[in-house]
């Protein structure tokens, strides 16, 4: 490979927020290898918001966990912010939010948000100041002293998002963070999440089972087929940002929804 080609490749890699290159993942169960992800190729530029949708068990969460450095690939390569998931996690470039908020019940909201900063070794004054800023960002100013049990499910998830943002990650990985919430709360948090993303612009990979949610949030929606997980297609969402609830009535919104539904029907369900 020439020097020019090598430099061009390195420049392109630096512009990548997330990439899966020929990623294969198998799990061994009772001595038998089960193929979960089958040759996944996906590239998400820095700062893009992309959702992944597909039937239960298709490997959506497995793909996210590979990017989060929670499980290794069997073969292929995963790239996070231009480097390996292991290095990205060690460098605090990753924020992860799961379906359950996983807050520490004995810590106040403020101390839950500041936990990653405490682990980093930052002083109390600095981490409290950052935590307060983030709580204001997610609409929870005034709840600093509350315990998680005193919050609704939606509020707990906002605390989890604030905690994930505390280290100023370049990449935000979200695994069905609103899946357990009622539709009204879910739509409100969709709007708040887009507002946060618009201000901070991390690269976002968002796992969901909701077609309207995927379309509303994303610039592109990755549709996966039934196990072994594979990418069936990537649907562009032709709606400008910023988006408000009126976007859900736009013909482009319904066109993307219809396309995704058709692909899921062909791919083996939803």
UniProtKB/TrEMBL annotation:
The keyword Plastid does not apply. Keywords: ATP-binding, Lipoprotein, Nucleotide-binding, Transport. GO terms for molecular function: ATP binding; ATP hydrolysis activity. InterPro entries: AAA+_ATPase (IPR003593), ABC_transporter-like_ATP-bd (IPR003439), ABC_transporter-like_CS (IPR017871), ABC_transporter_ATP-bind (IPR050166), P-loop_NTPase (IPR027417). Pfam families: ABC_tran. Residues 18-251 form the ABC transporter domain. Signal peptide: none annotated. The keyword Iron does not apply. This is Sulfonate ABC transporter ATP-binding lipoprotein. It comes from Actinotalea fermentans.
